[in-house]
Write the structure tokens for this entry.
Amino acid sequence: MSTDAPIRLLTPDVVNKIAAGEIIERPASVLKELLENAVDAGATQIDVAIAAGGIKLISVADNGKGMDRDNALLSIERHATSKIRTAEDVECVATLGFRGEALASIAACSRFRLLTRPAEALTGTELLINGGRLQDVTDAGGPAGTIFEVRDLFFNLPARRKFMRTAPTEMAHIQQVFLVHALGHPEIGFRLTVDARPMYSLPAGAKLEDRLRELFGPELISALRPVVWRNERFTISGYAGLPAASRADRNEQYVFINRRPATAPIIAHAIREGYHTLLPAGRFPVLFIFMELDAERVDVNVHPTKREVRFREPQAIRDGLIAALRGALTTPAQLTGAGPLVSAVPAPPTPELHIDDLPSARIFHYPALPGIPIPVPPTLAKPAPGAASEPAATRTSESEAPPASPARAPWAWCRVVGQIGGLYVILETEDGFVIMDPHAAHERVLFERYLKALSGGAVISQGLLTPETVELPPRDALRARQNLTLLRRMGFGIAEFGGN
Ligand code: ADP
Ligand code: MG
């Protein structure tokens, strides 16, 4: 368009399409908005149905307060909301939504059906909207509450449509959104049906612990410690994962601020501080943290998706969260070694060991693995012959090893002095001491072993008598799916078996 074109107000249709791009990034964003609305409407049961990763259909049915005909028509207008009235209200908003943009945006870029009835009304209302254009408004029956059906997302925004991934990828995002909301509201019953197959049916009135067990399985629960902390201004509750159950990314960290899944830079800092030396660099704890504070102490109006929040007193929040996490992690349960991956055997009377015997020492439950190089802290590495002037800290154990033969153990002998907090093992070596995390060391040993077998092309595997069905969290399932070929090359006979 030429630069001297006259200035014109955009039509609502165009405005909605532009806004849709900001709020609705993919099918999972639609689900997020519809779930937030259902929660805000006071639902105690929310049923989600998805077809083709949400590209074909996203449907959310709730038993909340419903809308009469006027409200239903208003709800799909831009900036129409029942949740705030003045700019001041934004300062203390207690609902998940408040901008009144979501429904207008979704309706602008899909084939949209809304069926709603307040409990006290005899008839409900049905709205049909096609790419933002109202097609039909009729009286309709139906259960009390609201049903949204969103079909063919972005059918009228080809540029957006191109950015959508395959159905399984979009499905993984959808499941993640479902999971987050189900976690944030254990008191609400949630069902998820995917391509006409039921996937989750989570009962209403659950406690967080029950919900966690249903979503993640009993194993995870045993790796968690309860978090309970409060002062006069806010409370922090939930569960903190033991160091042994840490992850390589932050994907298993769920933080809710006044029940809203949210992040803030200060929270990431506090988590790092709270775990401090308990986790090596690059490992992240599993967390389910609920922070409750007065609405006016937190600003949720920072980001279009409201994902990031700002605290009025970030320092106090930070200190509180650090104290909460430390409190949870130093409960006696952990010190007596209740962690599932860590031996609770009391330290043995310091036996003298040769390094090759080390893995079979009583303190570990790991098989003997002779000939596996043990990583050594650079500062304890002995200078290689002829390199005496080189500062020890600049070398790694790998750089010392001749490429063809694996590095030998860095110490001629060592002695297990003991284990601390059921976690770290202290070893005395000929010229110093070493602190070892047996879990990390075991992982490393296995890693080296697999890598060696793989690069040698000689992966040995044996079929199981009966195959094992493994259920993974959605994001891990996606990762596994994307790496099926590699996993097979590593000797795992692995096949996708529906769901996750
Ligand atoms: P917001 O949630 O920011 O208010 P939305 O566009 O998401 O904006 O929704 C607009 C309005 O429609 C809401 O304020 C609410 O009054 C009404 N509404 C939306 N979803 C539901 C629902 N599931 N049940 C009852 N009312 C709803
Ligand atoms: Mg909303």
Remarks:
- The longest helix spans residues 167-184.
- The pocket of adenosine-5'-diphosphate (ligand 1) is lined by residues 33, 37-38, 41, 62, 64-67, 75, 80-83, 97-103, 146 (CB under 6 Å).
